[in-house]
Amino acid sequence: TKVKSAEFVMSNSDVAKCPKNRIPEYAFIGRSNVGKSSLINMLTDRKSLAKTSGRPGKTQLINHFIINEEWYLVDLPGYGYARVSKTSKKKFQKFITNYFEQRQQLVSAFVLVDIRHKPQPIDLEFMQYLGENGIPFGIVFTKADKLKPNAIDNHVDDYCKELLKTWEEIPPYFITSSSKKIGQDDVLDFINNTNEE
Ligand code: GDP
């Protein structure tokens, strides 16, 4: 599995303006600073396809990239709670929930979590939101180079235990490090295996 071509297509904040064709797409999302831009650059073997942190304006957009002229990689903004947060649906920014509820081309989301941290409420709630809306997702653990192998196993086990409190099954998950280039094949293979009809 290799990324032969990766090109920016468009940015916007309105799901209605996203590309209209039926190309399958995969969306990457997580809290800011989780390592999403670095992961996207690592997956695509590009140095700066996605802009790494420190550019507040650009990050509040839905960014489409076309990969191998076959699938869209969608770089979504880091999520945070919306101000009014009663139901799980209303907890997240409106244009993000619009994207997930309306984008029929979406094959799978990837929710990024920093492997060093204990399961965080906002990440669990976002996964809960996706589950309630029937949106398939995988979990991408980032920054695995920051832990020793046995600590990686322990952290992943703890995460799975937490998920099993509310889920019957563990979603697909991937252990990655952008700086050590770990997990590229796992994620790309998953995408390639799911994007054919
Ligand atoms: P984003 O805000 O989610 O797009 O995160 P960035 O990709 O900009 O990364 C946030 C910070 O984490 C930066 O300082 C990166 O250098 C660092 N970082 C990202 N990925 C990794 C990784 O795999 N390993 C390590 N050690 N640091 C990382």
UniProtKB/TrEMBL annotation:
CDD domains listed in its UniProt record: YihA_EngB
Keywords: Cell cycle, Cell division, GTP-binding, Magnesium, Metal-binding, Nucleotide-binding, Septation
Domain of life: Bacteria
A Pfam family reported for this protein in Swiss-Prot or TrEMBL: MMR_HSR1
Chain ranges of the EngB-type G domain: 22-197
PROSITE patterns per record: G_ENGB (PS51706)
Alphabetized SUPFAM superfamilies for the sequence: P-loop containing nucleoside triphosphate hydrolases
Cofactors that this protein relies on: Mg(2+)
Family indicated by similarity: Belongs to the TRAFAC class TrmE-Era-EngA-EngB-Septin-like GTPase superfamily. EngB GTPase family.
Functional note: Necessary for normal cell division and for the maintenance of normal septation.
Name the UniProt record assigns to this protein: Probable GTP-binding protein EngB
